[in-house]
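Possible regression after last week's pipeline update?

I re-ran a chain I had predicted before the update to compare outputs. Posting the input and the new output here so someone can diff against the archived version. Not blocking, just want to make sure nothing changed silently.
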Amino acid sequence: MKVLIAEDSRSSRIVIKSYIEDAGHQVIAVDNGQQAVEQFSITEPDLVLLDVIMPIKDGIEAAKEIRALSEQDNDWVPIIFLSAMTDSDDIARGIKAGGDDYLTKPIDAVVLNAKLDAMQRIANMRHDLQKANQKLRLMAMKDGLTGLANRRHFDEVMLKEFKRSMRSNTPISLILADIDKFKPYNDNYGHQAGDDCLKAVSQLIQSVIKRPGDLVARYGGEEFAIILPETDLAAARIVAELVQQAFDANKIPHAHSTVADYLTLSLGVASLQPIKNEDITDSIHTIIETADKRLYQVKKQGGKAIVSQ
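New output (post-update):
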């Protein structure tokens, strides 16, 4: 467990630090409330011990700020106050400020160890909960069948990347890809084969997209989207050509297609240079609409092609 101590008395700080380290825990020690707030953000401790009376910023004010920071992250880290004052009003004031418990100085090693054992159990539960929440967040971002980003995550990334593109004055590109003649594939090979086909297509597209900042998403049905930040139209077309080449090389059989005897894609490519102070929602709508129109143009012409202008 990682423990943050804020105690202005050097001798008390050394003693408490040694107690905690002897119990097998890691310690970050500071001597005032302001440093405690700063170190809380940097070190992300599992437990905070705050002396009530300290220079620069006292424990009560530090607790309020630490509690506000933890709430921003939807997290909760226990805070224990340290003080020689045992007046009921002082204890109530500390709890109201965001504290969870109180230890009277001088600190008794046995009592402190008992508190640490209890806080360790809480820390373990917090970590387990964080892992579960992270897993849920990932599940909420992914398409259940293909494992690609889902439409919701696509929308979130588009907004984030458009904001970034606007700040950095760089272009952003979008590729919309649709499997040609997927309905005959599903009808003739069966729905399980259709699902396997969508998984194979997802893996094939993902294998071409190498940059960490790029995103491949299942846009809907048999349609896929590729977000390419910091990429102009010419570079985006090259990416689309690489995707198409991957399909030509792998030749997933599709005997019921009128386009080819293997699975093929139609691709519409669009690029946009967001303008500062321009409505981002309108810009996102424009690039999606442009890519979609170009994709429709390919489908209208028979499929297995790329339209980028």
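Follow-up from reviewer: compared with the archived run. The mean pLDDT is 90. Marking as no regression found.
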